[in-house]
Amino acid sequence: MRRSDREYKEFLELFVPNERRLYAFIVSVLAVLVNANDVLQETSLLLWQKFREFKRGTDFLAWACRIAHFKVLKLKDKARRGQLLDPEVIELIVDESIAAAATLDQRSAALADCVSQLSAKDRQLLTLRYSESAAPREIAQKTGRSVDAVYKSLQRVHSSLFDCVRRRQSQEEDS
């Protein structure tokens, strides 16, 4: 049965933002890093093949990690002893990685919200530093500030964002 462009687009919208985290999960359960790319490729193909079985509205990354987990176990069966972690250890890592991914998503959302509440001047500073990869010396030249003032401003913004994200997480835990 031919897949629709809509289905492919939906798959990519879920897969692409999670690919790095899925790869990080695979690396975390493999003792031999060289196998990680192969496992990611095989898992990606299997995810697409089984995408119709994925329940919309559930955690795509958790589903993908479970499929990757089975790929790792299959690889373990084929590998020589000692190259991969024990299946019980892998299971623990799977559970922890899925929980960590959910926490990371919450932190990312909180950070985005906190950044949106910064002043335009502070957002510009972050954009120059992180989106444009400008060094503090370059930022100082572009903004007409001293290098020391740029460092102090970045430190203040980082501290403000850290506190804001912590408050949001605390609020989410309380609710």
Structural features, described:
The structure is a single chain. The chain is an all-alpha fold and about 180 residues long. The protein folds into two domains: about 1-105, Rna Polymerase Sigma Factor, Chain: A (Orthogonal Bundle), CATH 1.10.1740; about 115-175, Orthogonal Bundle (Arc Repressor Mutant, subunit A). Helix content is about 80%, strand content about 0%. The chain is built from seven helices and no strands. It has helices at about 5-30, 35-50, 60-80, 85-115, 120-130, 135-145, 145-175. Helix 1 (about 5-30) packs antiparallel against helix 2. The radius of gyration is 21 Å and the shape is elongated. The mean pLDDT is about 85.
Task: Walk me through the topology.
Blueprint: H1 5-29, H2 36-49, H3 60-78, H4 87-116, H5 120-131, H6 136-143, H7 147-174
Helix pairs in contact: 1-2, 1-3, 1-4, 2-3, 3-4, 4-7, 6-7
Query: What is the CATH fold-level name of the largest domain?
Result: Rna Polymerase Sigma Factor, Chain: A
Number of helices: 7
Query: Sheet bearing the most strands, described?
Result: none
Report the order of strands and helices: HHHHHHH
CATH architecture of the largest domain: Orthogonal Bundle
What count of domains describes the coordinates?
Answer: 2
**Sheet/helix structural class:** mainly alpha
Annotation, overall tally of beta strands? 0
User: Distance between termini?
Assistant: 45 Å
Strand content: under 5%
Give the overall average pLDDT: 84
Radius of gyration: 21 Å
